[in-house]
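User: Fold this one for me? It's 3-beta hydroxysteroid dehydrogenase/isomerase domain-containing protein.
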Amino acid sequence: AELLDPAVKGTLNVLNSCANTPSVKRVVLTSSIAAVTYNGKPRTPDVVVDESWFTDPEYCKNLKVSIYTIRLV
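Assistant: Here's what I get for 3-beta hydroxysteroid dehydrogenase/isomerase domain-containing protein.
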């Protein structure tokens, strides 16, 4: 919650500002937890998540995770 709450609030602030700005027609959000979530690696308290944790497309395919999600990773 310490990291998640500010991230959610910040994203909502940006989206609300965009919604209240007539010249903004589209918003593209490209950041996602999916970038480091789907890889089949064990998640234990001692694990450090870094660039080696990027999502494995084959793992996603086996889980039937949307190709759209994988494409954004």
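One thing worth pointing out: Helices lie at 4-19, 34-37, 57-63, 67-72.
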